[in-house]
Amino acid sequence: MTTEQERILVVDDEEAVRNLLQRILEETGYTVTTAANGQEAIYKLSLGEAKIILLDMKMPGMSGIEVLQKLEEEWPKYCILMVTAVTDLQTAVDALKLGACDYITKPFDREDVKQKLIKAIQKHHRLSQDKKHYDQLQKSIVEQTSQMQEQFAELVNSLSRENKLVHQLAAGQPDGGKAMLSKLPKELQEPISSVDEYRDALLRILRRA
Predict the structure, then answer these.
(1) Is the pLDDT of residue 72 over 80?
(2) Whole-number pLDDT of residue 2
(3) Residue 108 DSSP symbol
C-alpha cells in the first residue's frame, strides 16, 4: 500500500511539534491532518479523516492515554503511535498494552519517525487482515452451525415419526412387540409422546456412544 493512500492524524497541543511532524510525513508522501487536543482528535476521527494516528502522550484536557482508552474498543480500526518524551518511556510501554502499535520519542529523529511509522502501518494491516479472517471464520462457523441445527431438527422429526410407527406396529404383535422393541436402545423402548422427548432421548444415546 502506498503512502498516498494513508491518511494520518497528528495530535499534539504544541503547534511547533504538529508542524514538524506534518512536514516530515508530507515529505514522505502521506496525507496529513492535525488536531490540537484529544477532543478535536476524537471529532476528526468520527468524520473518518484518518486511520493512522500520531498521538501525544501528555496534553491538557483529554490526554493521549485517555484518547487511546476511548479508542481501545475500536483498535482494529486505527493504528496509533504514541508521541512521548524520553523520560516517559514506561508510560509509552504501558500504552502498548492498551493497543498502541508503537511509540516515538521527542526530540524526533526524522528517519526513526518514518521507519517506525512504516513498521506500525504494516503491523496494523496484518492485524486488520487477521481480524477480517477471524470474522469470516466466525461467520462461517455460525452459518454452518445453524445449518446443522436445522438438519438435526429435521432428522429428529423424521426419526421421531418412525419411532412412533415402530411402537404402533409392535403394539399389534402377540407379545406386544417385546422382541422387536428389545433391539432398540433402552431410551427408545418405551413410547415417546413428543418430538422434544425423542430429541432428549437421542441426545442421551449420542452422549453414551
Answers:
(1) no
(2) 46
(3) P
